[in-house]
User: Fold Transposase from Hymenobacter cavernae.
Amino acid sequence: MSRKYKFRSQDDLYFISTATINWIDVFTRSLYKDIVVESLRFCQREKDLDIYAWCLMTNHLHMIIGTRGRKMEHTLRDMKQFTAKRILEALAEHPEESRHDWMLWMMERAGRRMPGNDIYQFWQHDNHPIAVFTPTVLLQKLHYIHQNPVVAGFVERPEDWLYSSAKNYYSSDLPLLDVLLIE
Assistant:
């Protein structure tokens, strides 16, 4: 099946968005958010993923990414499989989670509709990759990513959101594009 949005070249930067199934607000607890952050760090170290900007919201993740070799779609697939498994395990280990039964029911229901799925569907399949070709588009996507928690009313300043790269950009004295290009 062809999708409109694809990774067309591994040499380009991409803005990606991925969400939990049915936009379930799973990432309201640090336990679940930390699993995603740990997995992203692993992908940077071991799977050639370059993350230039990111923001994890309550039910979705935005990033600007590139690669040093491995296909981005394969890395994202692996990251999503790993985090889904670990978060589902965490839910099973913490039945006192107030939304435990409801979240598992929703994920199981979604999983039954997906061919080849084991039991649960945690993430939506698409990553909605958009190639970032110009500095203007790059800055627009960077602003969009970091303003997400502000627009949602969670924080007043982007750099105050803990699960985001905004603090790396807004606390620097360097121009924004210079920060982006420095490792």
In short: Strands lie at 13-19, 49-56, 60-67, 130-132.
